[in-house]
Predict the structure of Histone deacetylase.
Amino acid sequence: MLKIAWSKIYNHPLPEGHRFPMEKYDLLPEQLLYEGTISQANLFEPRKLTEAEILATHDADYWQRLKNLQLTRKEERRSGFPLSDLIVEREITINAGTIECAEFALQYGVAMNVAGGTHHAYTNRAEGFCFLNDIAIAANYLLNENKAQKILVVDLDVHQGNGTAQIFRNEPRVFTFSMHGAKNYPMHKEQSDLDIGLPDKTDDAEYLKILDFHLKHLLDIVKPDFIFFQSGVDVLATDKLGRLGMSIAGCKKRDQLVFEAAYKNEIPIVASMGGGYSEKIKDIIEAHANTYRVAQEIYF
């Protein structure tokens, strides 16, 4: 069964005019339920992270200041979100959801988080709508619990996974692969184990050719026993914060390549949704929904 982490707290209210589309976190499961791709049995309510799980990835001083709402105004602006008790609760719920998804993936082969993909969060700071790094926290959980020995992060958001790269720069058990817009945020890129910077307007054919080549190569040389997939749909040509030229169909094919590779090689995989900022909310929902449709088709 495809297990999906989702909570009402994912759709946290933001000030009017904020550019982050929080409503997608309610609209996406509603669409999947309406069309019959999933049922209520697929959804689970995540628990909350423990402090031990947070501190296995993030600095204690940073976590204490975040928890106590003591980030500076500059740090808060860098996060992109107004800091509050509710936003911190949202973060620890989303991040725990990715850990629980990892457990379900070990059982069923795949699991998915309606939110997450918070790859801009560093060990000691927030950035780009990310306070805590769910992929890093879940990867460290698996390593610390001896439930994985070699992890591959496949980050296909249009923005480089800079926080994830920083967190694992000295961790040989985690291989970070980020394929992103070369000229997009962040302007200063961290060094992943493999970075592929794509030129503006890269179309479906070129994108999929590059991804297919590198994904096959990485499975051969890294030999992962677990994959975290950051499946942001801000690669679309319609995205307000992206600069690539992909169609919704091309984005769906991207997801198919990743899930099929994991399935054929019997590697458990967790997908976190990542970014999506197209002008029309229906484009965001359709592209995200395709990720779930593809997973259901391949695995179940």
Q: What stands out?
A: The chain has a mean pLDDT of 96. The chain has one domain: 3-299.
